[in-house]
Write a structure and sequence with these properties.
Layout: E1 5-8, E2 29-32, E3 43-49, H1 56-67, H2 72-77, E4 83-89, H3 105-117, E5 122-125, E6 127-130, E7 134-137, H4 141-150, E8 158-164, E9 170-178, E10 188-196, E11 199-203, E12 211-215, E13 218-228, E14 236-244, E15 254-261, E16 267-274
Pfam family, one: DUF1223
Protein name: Thioredoxin-like fold domain-containing protein
Organism: Arabis alpina (Alpine rock-cress)
Length: 279
């Protein structure tokens, strides 16, 4: 593989499951059930972005529109499925003068894994990855929508989620349900992402100096629930993800996405939950 390069590119020119939440007496907790997830066979779109990249804000605006359903009619009209989006802020542009407050080396490592899996030589932002199989420049709206329509689709998991706050600094997400797909001996990782919406940042330095940056679906935490192998589609899977929350955590602005991925980070099913306001 050629030496890895970095680039910031530009071009010219959620499907949340139907939920029922209820407080559990004696605990700061709520249960969210989704026996048949809304937006079944959703396509997961990941955006690798940075506040330090001059062309990322346009891609962030595009992913916000995608997440809130602005393109749903167009996608469904072309035979596609609903979309779930996640945004990972990388940290390799921090040296340009503005340290992205949501950037993480963990997300840079994830993007690097896709660069290698998709046989690319250059890490760049903004970059979309659709179902873990196709990548494209983050500002190519029509190409993105076509990639979503053409993406392989899989049954969404049917997890029942319980959210608890054991302490003011932690969030516990317990999941029980069927994956609704058969898993062979190669195995599947069940991943749980905690994201935040409605982030607004006044950027005084760097390539976006003087701009007010708006970010949605920003992944703040990502944990592996478990790895499963040789599993029947209807077999119940249970596990708990533990998150340390950040200062100013507001559950009303946050959600959880559960997705299944193989060792090449290809996606095989996605389910989303909005966090209950009372958590």
């Amino acid at each position: 593989m050629a030496p890895r390069l970095f680039a910031c590119f530009g071009v010219k020119g959620s499907s949340t499951s139907t939920t029922t939440g209820k407080a559990i007496s004696g605990h700061n907790a709520a249960v969210v059930a989704a026996d048949v997830p809304a937006g079944d066979r959703s396509v997961l779109v990941q955006l690798f972005s940075s506040q330090g990249c001059k062309t990322s804000p346009e891609a962030e605006m595009l992913v916000s529109r995608l997440g809130r359903g602005d393109f749903d009619d167009q996608i469904r009209g072309s035979g596609g499925s609903p979309t779930i989006v996640l945004v990972f802020h990388v940290d390799y542009w921090d040296y340009l003068g503005w340290k992205d407050p949501y950037g993480s080396s963990q997300w840079t490592v994830r993007q690097k894994a896709y660069i290698e899996a998709l046989n690319l030589d250059t890490m760049f932002t903004p970059q979309f990855v659709v179902q873990g199989r196709v990548q494209l420049l983050g500002n190519e709206e029509e190409t993105l929508l076509k990639s979503i329509v053409d993406a392989p689709r899989f049954p969404s998991p049917a997890f029942r989620a319980t959210f608890q706050r054991p302490t003011s600094e932690t969030l516990q997400v317990s999941l029980t349900g069927a994956l609704r797909m058969k898993v062979d001996s190669s195995g599947i990782d069940i991943m749980v992402a905690l994201y935040e919406n409605g982030l607004v940042t006044d950027c005084p330095r760097g390539d976006n100096s003087g701009r007010v940056l708006a970010n949605d679906y920003v992944v703040r935490k990502l944990e592996k629930l478990c790895t499963v192998k040789d599993l029947a589609a209807k077999k119940t899977v249970s596990g708990t993800a533990h998150f340390t929350v950040w200062d100013g955590f507001n559950s009303a602005k946050c959600g959880v996405v559960v997705f299944l991925q193989n060792t090449s980070l290809q996606i095989f099913g996605t389910q989303s939950f909005q966090l209950p306001d009372e958590i």
